[in-house]
Amino acid sequence: MAEITTIARPYAKAAFDFAIEKDAVDSWAEMLNFAAMVSENDTIKPLLSGALSSDKLAELFIGVCGEQINVQVQNLLKVMAENGRLGTLPAVFQLFVEMKHEWAKEIEANVVSAIELTSVQQQDISVSLEKRLARKVKLNCSIDTSLIAGVIITAGDLVIDGSVRGKLSRLSDMLQS
């Protein structure tokens, strides 16, 4: 994965810089997301390994994307096809999104709870994380009944395990030492 990220980074950076310059970061994110999904399609994916010439592949890929992408994204796809890099589009999209969040001072936080959180609880978690991380926080909430009670929050490198299962695990580790 590190090699793919290294290959994808210059394309993501170029796309992001262009999107910033044209004040079109959100639309570029949508277009790159669509192109990444096309690259992962079961019919298209085998063609990315060199079965077609770069010109034919770019033409086919852009044709499939149709009106979902603009001329600038088409040009990016042509360059990526010439270099045999269309298969890295999902990584390009992921890096683009990371750059977008960094630029917008946003972070996504995953909140896993034992039961469904109320909107007030979600708001409290969001406010606390925004203070702690000095960024806007977007919560992705999910439920895992195996936690028994409590929550596990992950945001970037930050992990907060406030679950009963996590506390029991730490207590068990302490007792065994």
Which features characterize this protein?
177 residues; 4 strands; 58% helix; four-stranded mixed β-sheet; alpha+beta; 14% strand
The portion of residues forming beta strands comes to 5-15%
Instruction: State the oligomer.
Output: single chain
Distance between the termini: 36 Å
Strand order, biggest sheet? Answer: 2-1-3-4
Global structural class: alpha+beta
Q: Briefly, what is this?
A:
With 177 residues, the protein is of the alpha+beta class. It contains seven helices and four strands; from the N terminus they run H-H-H-H-H-E-H-E-E-E-H.
Q: What do you see in this structure?
A:
This protein has 177 residues and is of the alpha+beta class. 58% of the residues lie in helices and 14% in strands. The protein is built from seven helices and four strands, in the order αααααβαβββα. Strand 3 and strand 4 (158-161) form a beta hairpin. Helix 2 (25-39) packs antiparallel against helix 5 and helix 3 runs antiparallel to helix 4. The longest helix is centred in the first third of the chain and has 20 residues, at 2-21.
